From TrEMBL:
SUPFAM superfamilies: ADC synthase (SSF56322). GO terms for molecular function: isochorismate synthase activity. Belongs to the isochorismate synthase family. This is isochorismate synthase. Pfam families: Chorismate_bind (PF00425). Residues 89-350 form the Chorismate-utilising enzyme C-terminal domain. It catalyses: chorismate = isochorismate. Its EC number is 5.4.4.2. Coiled coil: none annotated.
Amino acid sequence: MPTFALSRPTDHVFAYGAGVRFNTIDAAAAVLHNRSHEYIVGALPFDLDSPAALTAPTRFVRRPVRWQPDSPPLPTTAIKGFDPQPDEHVRRVDAAIRVLSDPRAALVKVVLARTVILRASAAIAPVDLLTRLVAADQGSNGLLVDLSSAGPHYTGTHLIGSSPELLVRKSGSTVVCHPLAGSAPRASDPAADRTNGQMLAASAKDQREHAFVVDAMAAALAPLCSDLDVPTTPGLTQTPNMWHLGTRIVGTVREPATTALDLAVALHPTPAVCGTPTADAREFILANEGDRGFYAGAVGWCDSAGDGEWMVGIRCAELSADGLTIRASAGGGIVSDSDPQLELAETSAKLRTILSALGR
Ligand SMILES: C=C(O[C@@H]1C=C(C(=O)O)C=C[C@H]1O)C(=O)O
C-alpha cells in the first residue's frame, strides 16, 4: 500500500513506507538541505502552526507517464452530517460579507469552507478511493497522503483527493505555479456549460477574487525568483465539476539551494484558500471554522536536488483509520459583493468531486 501518491497529467509518484516521520516542516526541510534523505513526501496543514504530515519514504517511484486506471467498486456510503450545517455556512458568509463591506476593516477576501461527513457500509481502502478519483478526472489528478506523521490524532488516517490546483512545481531552476480562484459550476448541456465558462471569464467579481491570489503569489515569489512571468489576464481551467479562472506563473529560482518545499512554504496559504490580508483571513477562519486539519493545506514531494511538486489540498477528504468515516470539505472565496446562496451552491458543486467518486 502506498503511503503517498501524487498523480498528474504527465507523470505520477508513488511512495511507500515511512523511513523517518516529521511533524515539523523545518525538520523535513533540514534533511533535504543536508541531503541525509533523498525524498520528502506528505502534506502541510492549512494552519502552519499545526503539525505537518511529512515523511522520508523507504521507496519513491516516479513514472513519467499519465496514470489512467480503471475505476474499482467502493462500499456504499450515507451522509451522516454536516460541519457546519448548510444554513450556518450561509450565516457565516453573510457575516463575512458585512466585515468585507466595512471600509474600516482590513479584510478584503476570505475563503469559507464546510464539511460533509459520510459513513461507509464497509471499510474503504484509501488506494481504491484515490483510483476512482484519478479515473474520473480528465487530467488524472489525484493525491493520497498517510497522515500518521502528524501525531496520534492522525494515526492511520489518509487525505485523499483530486486537486486541480498547482501550488508550485520546481524542476531544475524553473518554477511554475498555477493558482485557481473564481468559480462556476459545469453544466451537462454543452451550450449552458459554455455560457457558464464565458460568464465566469467576464465576471468582475471573480476577476477581483482571482487577482488577490495572483498578486500575493507574485509578491511571495519575487524575493525567491527572477524573470517572473505573471500574465495580467487569467485563463479558464475546467475540471469535471467546475470552471475556474487560472493564471500560469513562471519564474527562475535566484538561489539554486531553494527547494520546492521552501517555495511551497513561502506561498502557502495563498488567498485561494485563506484570503487577503493573509493574517486577518486566517484569524477569521480559525475563529469561525476551527481547525481545518489538512483540508486547504498542500500535498506534494521534494527531492534532495530541490525538485518537486506541491498541490493545494482541495477537492479532498480525510478518511478515518478504520476506513469507515469520510470528511469531505470545500470552500469558496468571499468578497464584499458575494451572494451567500451562490456561495453555498459553489461549495456543493466542489463537493461533487469526492461525492461522485463515492458513487453518490
Ligand atoms: C477552496 C477551494 O477552492 C479554491 C477556491 C476557489 C474560489 O473561491 O473560486 C477556486 C479554486 C480553489 O482555489 C475548495 O475547492 O475547497
